[in-house]
TrEMBL record:
The family this protein is said to belong to: Belongs to the Mediator complex subunit 23 family.
Record-level GO BP terms: positive regulation of gene expression; regulation of transcription by RNA polymerase II
Keywords, sorted A to Z: Nucleus, Transcription, Transcription regulation
InterPro entries noted in UniProt: Mediator_Med23
Protein name: Mediator of RNA polymerase II transcription subunit 23
Length: 661
């Protein structure tokens, strides 16, 4: 306060600078003692009031004096630097229109920010960017000093030598706030921010694979599924799981739908797809992106069928694009079975994508794929899950006249009649649920249905010839035991012959462990097995396993029929039925045969695994290897020929494993 007498004689008074500095020191001491006795909350309120008072100063020198007092409180550890910086940035008076206050405040922040921890610096950086957004984009002379003061603070934070905030944290915050490298807080700061991000470009290249988006993995069944870290994708977006918010190449940040589709198209890709998307069997997690790609593969197959110039059936008895549709059905069954995909959603998505498009040539193959899943799961799921298939039927089968009965000597007939088989399964399910789907077999499928009804009659003789009538019956009636038992029995008789009822030969005519070889020698062809639905194949393999176990337990010295052994070998290759197939072989069949001391049967099974079984996944091979190890230790197996067979099988298993397994 200036005394009246000082004011009157101001022109002749001599001011002593020492007394000025003494005054400032006194104020500083009083302010320090006042602030040091306050709680943190009270200090915060006091600083806010102090800033409001400073903002009201019209004298620039006094403003500088007040803020220097505040700075001194920080340097003398009376007030924490972070608290003062945050109070400044949150102050309502901090507006670019108050030029002196704005500039001096950011100068103060620049001086004291070195005492703030890195988390606090990160918040201050965010606050600076927010304040930058309040400055108009059209700069004139009145605003340049404000922006320069703000820019100085951000530059100091970005200075790696200042060690205020790790550069990685800075680039992460920038990438989060401005992921597309646009819409910077102010164009004047754009160069500063973008240059800092670009400085991490080399780091991004070091921790990523150059050209990764153009590469494709080698997909195989030999167990490298766990070694696919570079191919891991986000379950929702299908983007690469890249570490950190670094400036990666744009191609690496795009959804990798083509990569997932490529892997899905490959055989033995199920485990790899699950590993790529982080899907686990224990957790039922639906993956929409996976569903979409399965639908896309179906549509691509339909388009390919429409433009196909090849004959509808190949020389080997397989339908055109046979393996494409076979693979699609296998993938669909697996991913829906483990709840990674939803069957009704897939069917409706296919319907929506085919609506308005004239893609009819592949319709029978599509229905064959859907029949594979429906026949095996309709008994365990409500009818409503499968009714969307009827919408697909209405779209793809617009004919008014009945479709002719196809040539049942060709494998194609099982695909052409797949839609009729689906209707039969749906009607049987509706009957068991005592519900009504209000739609009988359509007039379009009348002849197909009558043909199957005639075949299934008890007075019709069933014998496995070179045609596919038995396969058609199995496919249509696999959920109806009343009609299913006859065609299945005909299939089993084909590979067992009369062996089921043969009497055991006198033991004395045979030496040691010798067995009589008899029975059919011609196995079921691959085209016949391919033409059966998964549900029918599971019934067939169950019958074969039951027969082998019964034969082993009865101590029969009759060798297994060659046709049965070869057919069983062929069935074990189908991945869709591995629970009854290879899993049952290792966990049920081998132990039972060994326990029954049926050495001849055991020998046959080991020979079968050595010479006829390919494409078996490594974990099954290792499991069998441990079984053989325990077999070899049992005294009863100490028979030279059998022991050599066990040893040979074990060696084949070991040499068949890859280096990563």
């Amino acid at each position: 306060k200036v005394e009246a007498i000082e004011e009157a004689f101001s022109c002749v008074l001599v001011h002593h600078p020492n007394s000025e500095s003494e005054k400032i020191t006194t104020w500083q001491t009083e302010l320090s003692s006042a602030m040091s006795n306050l709680t943190k909350e009270q200090q915060e309120n006091a600083v806010k009031q102090f800033l409001c008072m400073a903002a009201a100063m019209t004298n620039h020198r006094r403003l500088q004096l007040l803020l220097s007092l505040l700075e001194n409180l920080v340097t003398s550890n009376v007030l924490p630097a972070r608290l003062v910086c945050e109070c400044i940035l949150n102050c309502d008076k901090l507006q670019y229109q108050l030029e002196d206050f704005w500039v001096e405040c950011f100068v103060l922040i620049r001086h004291i920010i070195g005492g703030v921890d890195y988390k606090g610096v990160r918040e201050i950086m965010k606050g600076c960017k927010e304040k930058a957004q309040t400055i108009p984009s059209r700069l004139d002379a009145s605003v340049q000093s404000q922006l320069k003061a703000l820019e100085n603070v951000i530059e100091y934070i970005f200075d790696r030598n200042a060690c205020l905030l790790p550069g990685y944290f800075i680039v992460t915050e920038i990438q989060k706030a401005y992921p597309d490298g646009k819409h910077w807080p102010h164009w004047k700061l754009a160069k500063l921010l973008s240059n800092f991000v670009e400085s991490f470009r080399n780091t991004a290249q070091m921790v990523s694979i150059v050209g990764h988006s153009k590469m494709l993995p080698v997909v195989e069944h030999t167990g490298y599924a766990d070694l696919i870290n570079p191919w891991v994708l986000d379950t929702t977006t299908l983007k690469f799981s890249l570490k950190g918010n670094l400036p990666y190449d744009e191609d690496l940040l795009k959804p990798q739908t083509e990569l997932l589709r490529y892997v899905l198209e490959q055989p033995y890709s199920r485990d790899m797809v699950c590993s790529m998307l982080g899907l686990q069997k224990q957790q039922k997690q639906r993956c929409i992106a996976l569903e979409e790609q399965l639908v896309e593969l179906v549509i691509l197959a339909m388009e390919r069928a429409e433009n196909e110039t090849l004959p509808a059936e190949g020389t080997d008895g397989t339908v055109a694009n046979h393996y494409v549709w076979l693979h699609l059905s296998s993938q669909l069954i697996y991913f829906v079975l483990f709840s990674y995909a939803c069957f009704p959603s897939i069917v409706m998505a296919i319907h929506d994508k085919l609506a308005g498009r004239d893609l009819r040539k592949g319709r029978d193959h599509l229905m064959w794929v859907l029949l594979q899943f429906i026949s095996g799961s309709i008994q365990r799921n409500p009818l409503s899950n499968f009714l969307p298939v009827l919408k697909l039927y209405d779209l793809l089968y617009p004919e008014k006249e009945p479709l002719p009965v196809p040539d049942y000597t060709r494998a194609l007939c099982t695909h052409q009649m797949a839609i009729t088989c689906i209707w039969i399964h749906l009607l049987k399910k509706a009957q068991s649920e005592h519900s009504n789907i209000h739609r009988p077999i359509p007039h379009t499928l009348k002849l197909h249905h009558e043909f199957l009804q005639h075949l299934v009659m008890p007075n019709t003789s069933l014998c496995m010839g070179s045609d596919y009538r038995i396969a058609l019956l199995c496919n249509a009636y696999s959920t109806n035991q009343e009609y299913f038992s006859r065609p299945m029995a005909a299939l089993v008789d084909t590979i067992l012959g009369t062996q089921k009822g043969q009497q055991q030969q006198p033991m004395q005519t045979l030496q040691n462990n010798a067995a009589l070889a008899s029975g059919p020698t011609t196995p079921l062809s691959m085209s016949i097995l391919d033409s059966l639905t998964v549900h029918s194949k599971m019934s067939l393999i169950h019958s074969i396993v039951s027969h082998v176990i019964k034969s082993a337990q009865s101590k029969s010295n009759m060798a297994l029929a060659p046709a049965l052994v070869e057919t069983y070998s062929r069935l074990l290759v189908y991945t869709e039925i591995e629970s009854l197939g290879i899993k049952g072989f290792i966990s049920q069949l081998l132990p039972t045969v060994f326990k029954s001391h049926a050495w001849g049967t055991l020998y046959t099974l080991l020979e079968m695994f050595s010479y006829r079984m390919h494409h078996i996944q490594p974990h099954y091979r290792v499991q069998l290897l441990s079984h053989l190890h325990s077999l070899a230790a049992v005294p009863q197996t100490n028979q030279t020929q059998l022991h050599l067979c066990v040893e040979s099988t074990a060696l084949r298993l070991i040499t068949g494993l890859g280096s990563a397994e």
